[in-house]
Amino acid sequence: MANLATLQDKKFIVTGAARGLGLAFTQAIAELGAHVVMADILSTLVAEEAQKLKAQGLKVDAFTVDLASGDSIEQCMADAIAVLGGLDGLVNCAALATGVGGKGLSDYDPDLWDRVMQINVKGTWLMSKAAVPHLKSTSNSGRIVNIASDTALWGAPNLMAYVASKGAIIAMTRSMSRELGEFGICVNTVSPGLTLVEATEYVPQHRHDLYVNGRSINRPQMPDDVTGTVVYLLSDLSSFVTGQNIPVNGGFIFN
Fold first, then answer.
1. Could you give all domains of the chain from N- to C-terminal order, each with its CATH number?
2. Whole-angstrom Cα distance, residue 216 to residue 97?
3. 108 catalytically annotated
4. What is the distance between the terminal CA atoms of the chain, rounded to a whole angstrom?
């Protein structure tokens, strides 16, 4: 039977890896023996975090990527493949989340809407597009894990562009899984609930309380609550799981 040790010596890219969930995913994957490329627009921070992980004996490298730029994505992928020597999986975690809410549909800034869609949706697509040729060479075991949000499942108010972008990620995952299944590439979505990371510090306390009080497990959600599901979807344990959206939110909303 397959086991999590199958991450040993595998090669992954995690976007949005400088902090929050992306950093937690990177550490969890690297601790299981994988070589991880950390990609983020926060170039100084991602390099600093990579050095900390290297000091723990983990195999990581860091590169800058701007998901709003196709050229930046292509360069990041080229740099990543140069150090990894191949690719087993991609975790699309990077997204524009801070400062994208607060206003209703009638007052939402169209330019901000476009920016959110450009980074969260188009950026995820272009990053996946750049990864696919390399994933096709992984002996029918390639993985893409897209990070959405359970806001897309319950329709969080005054957060329309973000909610719409994460709904698009769920839909895009399903389409990608249909296209890439013949190559043995599994594509899935993980939809975390409100997690205590830097990107959610702007969320008002009453929204945090709404989540905690509405969960089957009544406590705040931490990054480590999500890492196990991502690791599972990257491992050989999930070789017949594709096109799925898995909410990880302590039972706040069900899929």
1. 4-248 (3.40.50.720)
2. 25
3. no
4. 28
Task: Specify the pairing of strand 89-92 against strand 143-147.
Answer: parallel
Closest by CA position to 143, among listed 67, 104, 90: 90
Cα separation, 60 vs 37, in Å, equals 6
Choice among 162, 202, 211, 232 that is catalytic: 162
**Per DSSP, what are the bridge partners of residue 245?**
189
pLDDT in tens, 186-220: 999 999 998 888 777 777 787 888 888 999 999 99
**What letter represents residue 65's amino acid?**
V
What's the sign of the alpha-carbon dihedral 11, 17, 20, 22? negative
- Residue 13 and residue 37 in contact, taking contact as beta carbons nearer than 8 Å: yes
Q: What is the pLDDT of residues 146-162, one digit of tens each?
A: 999 999 999 988 889 99
Residue tagged 């490298």 (tokens): 61
3-state helix, strand, coil in the chain (%, to 5): 50, 15, 35
Q: What percent of the chain has pLDDT over 70?
A: 98
Instruction: With residue 49 as reference, give the H or E element that holds it.
Output: helix 43-55
